[in-house]
Write a structure and sequence with these properties.
- Helix content is 20%, strand content 36%.
- The protein has six helices and 26 strands.
- It has a four-stranded mixed sheet with strand order 1-19-20-24.
- Helix 2 packs antiparallel against helix 6.
- It is globular.
Length: 330
């Protein structure tokens, strides 16, 4: 490097590195700058532990998403990736996942993401809807359209990927800094990434899996289960019935690279151990992959070559949608 090429003496750079040496040896938080270069009062960070899509803000002394990126689930994502994270029937808006909107009388088809008329849905499932009525569900349940089928499911099975079930409603999780995310089981932000001495990022893949999918041996997170539990027909769960499914989420990282990571979900009925129908298995696998995609985009090094978690999700088919008054409920 040519002396003075960054407007600072080489000794100043050396002193900055020496000052950081103890922290480098023991591991640093994700929000770390390893080499700060200043010209007068203006400083910039040349080497940091920020994830892909983020940069170190020397005025706030932390990593922040770069222009054009959104802070989602502890990562900095493009708008397109943020929409994909939210899943079918939702998009990223104003800091969170929001439902897509249809004209009055239409519903989102959760298998395609397109709007379909309730009249068409009623015809598909063989329900006659009279004048002054519309297809609907009782209070506390939601009408979910899934291709040619439809079901009334508890509201607890309809949470978005960035929501938790409070016992009464789906609520947005707490906002965390990049490299950290909300762990529903702990009810707090947990750091899953930290800097390394080489200026890279090391990801605690076990912590990440627990926060995103659920703790090993426990219940799956609302955001994970909600992506597929609202589709009881996919699991062969008939009207008025319920079942628990057990899901093994297995992640592997070739040569320790997060960017090369792959995930697989194996789903069985909890009571019998029998595999769920192929359509249900595909729904779970898709949900696992969509969540995992946010981790891959952040890059870094995995704390272990493999990691897994086993969680349970409830699949409740509350009943068949019925005619309800066009204004009001059952």
């Amino acid at each position: 490097m040519r002396p003075g090429s960054f407007g600072v003496a080489p000794t100043a750079i050396s002193l900055a590195l020496l000052a950081l040496a103890p922290a480098v040896l023991v591991g640093c938080p994700e929000n770390s700058c390893f080499l700060k270069i200043c010209q007068g009062s203006s400083c910039r960070c040349s080497i940091s532990s920020c994830s892909d899509g983020a940069g170190f803000d020397t005025t706030q002394n932390r990593c922040r998403c770069l222009k054009g990126y959104l802070s989602v689930a502890g990562q900095c994502l493009t708008p397109q990736a943020a929409n994909a994270y939210c899943g079918v029937g939702r998009h990223y808006e104003a800091g969170g996942c929001a439902p897509d909107r249809c004209k009055p009388g239409d519903e989102i088809d959760q298998s395609t993401g397109y709007c379909v008329s309730r009249e068409q849905v009623a015809s598909n499932i063989g329900v006659a809807v009279g004048a002054g009525q519309e297809l609907g569900c009782p209070p506390g349940q939601e009408l979910v359209v899934d291709g040619p089928t439809a079901a009334c499911v508890p509201l607890s099975q309809t949470c978005a990927r960035d929501e938790v079930w409070t016992g009464q409603a789906c609520a947005k999780v707490g906002q965390c800094s990049t490299g950290s995310m909300w762990d529903p089981a702990l009810a707090q932000c947990v750091q899953y990434a930290q800097g390394s001495g080489e200026g890279g990022l090391t990801v605690n893949v076990g912590q990440w899996a627990s926060a995103n999918y659920g703790p090993n041996g426990g219940m799956g997170t609302s955001g994970f289960c909600g992506a597929f539990a609202k589709k009881p027909h996919s699991f062969g769960v008939v009207e008025g019935a319920s079942a628990y499914v057990r899901i093994a989420v297995m992640m592997s990282f070739p040569e320790g690279e997060i960017a090369r990571g792959v995930v697989q979900a194996v789903t069985v009925f909890d009571a019998s151990g029998n595999p769920v129908p192929p359509r249900g298995a595909a729904e779970v696998d898709t949900a696992a992959r969509n969540i995992f995609a946010t981790l891959v985009l952040g890059g870094g090094r995995a704390s272990a070559p493999t990691s897994s978690t086993n969680v349970r999700c409830a699949i409740i088919h509350a009943g068949k949608p019925q005619p309800v008054p066009a204004v009001g409920g059952l």
